[in-house]
Specification:
It contains no helices and 45 strands. The chain has five domains: about 15-50 and about 290-360, Immunoglobulin-like; about 55-285, no CATH class; about 365-440, Immunoglobulin-like, CATH 2.60.40; about 445-520, Immunoglobulin-like, CATH 2.60.40; about 530-615, Sandwich (Immunoglobulin-like), CATH 2.60.40. The chain is about 0% helix and about 45% strand. The strands form twelve sheets. The chain has a seven-stranded antiparallel β-sheet with strand order 4-18-15-14-13-12-5, with no helix packed on it. Strands 1, 2, 19, 20, 23 and 24 form a six-stranded mixed β-sheet that branches. A six-stranded antiparallel β-sheet has the order 6-7-8-11-16-17, with no helix packed on it. The termini are far apart. About 35% of the residues are buried. It is mainly β and about 625 residues long.
């Protein structure tokens, strides 16, 4: 049902329900073409204006971003009705509108006329007819506007005029003769109730920079919807006046409401270039929506799908048309129906846009190769894929959902499974997904240095190394151990004096090298069987000691015999505490025979046999 590239429409045409002869374009007239990469059915999406009944508030959005286009209704260079303003910083006489136009919640709204400023804006305030027009955009501590110093002032602001549409507001001067073709004029096009009032400024010089004449822009007022649009063709920057700043926006009569597009406020960084060709739409956003319905039809007007809408909160509605099943290359029309606020009987305007859906040929994989990993735990794997089929051969490649790149070569890969996703950057060809397996060529090559062991200093132990499919072995020790009996066999003997790490390195026939470590922990020797003691009570050598400390011992067992072989002392957990008695009787001074068994912490058992002399 899905998996179509989402389509965003920035093109809306509006015409009368009674007559299609008078069309009305919101953005531009063009077909939108998208690829369908699964079949038979898809969900199409569109973007249409979210027009509301009241102009109490507005939203503003760009018409030229995200794939939009720039297509004004009239050429600003073609003469229309002159505004008759040739004096710097001056308003025109009062100009009657052919239709009433709502603006904010002004008490006098809807308006039947307006005045035009030489500085790129209009006002619905009739008291400004033929009056002076402000020109500054800077202010110091809330004082009056200036063009020489201060802080840029944004909307709303009491320093600006009432009920204004700025498109854009900047200090331009038609009194200069440096632009012989300059025009300030207006045009009224269309038939009721779908007319447009279009105010154009063409190549007007900047004040104090009279040679900078690339200042061309338009303001458009729409009958029936209350929508306002601003088209910016060219903007120059006079760095020595008004800090080169300009502003697009609306402000109400009471000067307590205003709105500006992002990046186009007076306080934003300086903006504007020749040929910038951008446009902004201010859409009434208060009260109920005026949208009645939106449908998708074929070229014969038959309804294909009924749209559902979600407000994007920026003056646009996101529309979804489910279960659209194109048959080859198919053209559809998006038709949106709006009520004209206040019309009695109710009248409607319609928005239309055409789009063509087609099933493109998929991209073709022309080559694909894998370089496997030579050695265990290595990262020498690689994948290389090449495709053709996209217009312009411009592709984006990504590996396992990672960061896209412009080439189909992926290096430094470990063994594993990978998916390469290839996308046509232009979006006109279906993407390709290909799975690759990078394997480890030496996966059965292993080495094992053996298990760690704890010994007593001076003991000798055998290292139990092993390897599979190795052509050579090498033992090394850290720190160096001269007791290592061999370095190239699997099971050499060692007798380290301190704790030492032994590394067994193996090499196979491919030249791969792997290694493993084993640590031999050495504890100080604690066994020290004395062969005499003097239990005379003088506190010196009164007890028989068989160890210096118990750090290396779990348990000590002692058995003592006299010269006749009779047992005279036994203890299963000796604590260096025999005082030369047997059954609470003092044994005579003599030499006895002892057997001592030491159970080490390592689990090893050591047996010591020794004479022990009692000498008081």
């Amino acid at each position: 049902m899905k998996k179509a590239q989402w389509l965003i429409f920035l093109l809306i045409a509006i015409f009368s329900e009674k007559s299609n002869a008078q069309s009305f374009v919101f953005s531009c007239a063009k077909d939108t073409v998208i690829p369908v990469c699964t079949s038979p059915c898809i969900t199409l999406k569109a973007l249409i204006p979210d027009i509301h009944e009241s102009t109490t508030d507005y939203t503003v959005n760009s018409m030229t971003s995200n794939g939009g286009c720039f297509n004004p209704y009239v050429d600003p260079a073609v003469p229309g009705v002159s505004a008759n303003v040739t004096i710097d910083d001056r308003f025109s006489t009062f100009i009657d509108l052919p239709f009433s136009f709502p603006f904010y919640d002004d008490a006098a709204s809807p308006y039947n006329g307006l005045v035009i400023s030489t500085n790129g804006y209009l006002s619905f305030d009739p008291s400004k007819a033929s009056a002076s027009s402000h020109f500054g955009i800077l202010s110091t501590s809330g004082a009056s506007l200036s063009a020489s110093s201060g802080t840029p002032q944004d909307l709303p602001n009491s320093l600006y005029d009432r009920s204004v549409v700025m498109g854009p507001y900047h200090d331009i001067d038609p009194a200069y003769n440096t632009s012989p073709d300059q025009l300030i004029k207006y045009d009224i096009i269309g038939n009721a109730p779908h007319r447009k009032f279009i105010l154009s400024y063409y190549k007007i010089p900047l004040f104090d920079c009279r040679d900078l004449i690339n200042n061309t822009h338009q303001i458009v007022l729409y009958e029936g919807t209350g929508i306002i649009e601003v088209f910016i063709f060219d903007i120059d920057q006079c760095t020595i006046w008004n800090d080169a700043r300009s502003m697009i926006g609306l402000q109400n009569y009471n000067k307590d409401k205003g709105i500006m597009p992002p990046g186009r406020a007076a306080s934003d960084p300086v903006w504007g270039t020749a040929g910038m060709n951008e446009s902004w739409r201010f859409v009434p956003s208060a009260g109920p929506s005026t949208l009645d319905s939106v449908v998708l039809t074929d070229l014969n007007g038959n309804i294909v799908s009924v749209g559902s809408t979600v407000s994007l909160g920026d003056g646009n509605l996101d529309v979804s048309f489910p279960n659209v099943c194109p048959n080859g290359r198919t053209t559809y029309i998006v038709k949106s129906k709006y009520m004209i606020p206040g019309s009695n009987p109710v009248e409607y305007v319609y928005g239309t846009d055409t789009m063509t859906v087609f099933i493109p040929a998929p991209m073709t994989i022309t080559s694909a190769s894998v370089t496997n990993v030579a050695c265990p735990q290595g990262n020498t794997g690689a994948i290389n894929i090449a495709v053709t089929g996209a217009p312009g051969n411009d592709y984006s490649y990504s590996l396992n959902g990672g960061t896209p790149q412009s080439t189909g070569t992926f290096n430094n890969l470990t063994a594993g499974t990978y998916n390469v996703h290839v996308v046509d950057v232009a979006g006109l060809t279906c993407p390709v997904d290909t799975a690759f397996q990078v394997i480890e060529l030496s996966s059965n090559f292993t080495v094992d240095a053996g298990q760690p062991v704890t010994i007593i200093s001076g003991e000798q132990i055998q290292l139990n190394g092993s390897a599979v499919n190795a052509t050579s072995l090498l033992w090394t020790a850290s720190p160096s151990d001269p007791s290592l009996t061999a370095t190239t066999t699997a099971t050499p003997s060692v007798s380290p004096m301190i704790t030492t790490t032994y590394t067994l390195t193996a090499t196979n026939s491919n030249g791969c090298v792997i290694s493993d470590n084993v640590e031999i922990t050495v504890i100080p020797r604690c066994i020290n069987v004395r062969n005499a003691f003097s239990p005379n009570g003088d506190g010196i050598n009164d007890k028989w000691k068989v160890y210096d400390n118990r750090d290396c011992l779990e348990k000590v067992t002692v058995t003592v015999f006299n010269r006749n072989g009779s047992k005279v002392f036994e203890n299963q957990n000796y604590q260096n505490d025999w005082n030369g008695t047997f059954k609470n009787k003092v044994l005579p001074d003599a030499t006895y025979y002892a057997v001592v068994e030491f159970f080490l912490t390592s689990g090893k058992r050591i047996t010591a046999k020794s004479d022990v002399t009692i000498l008081r």
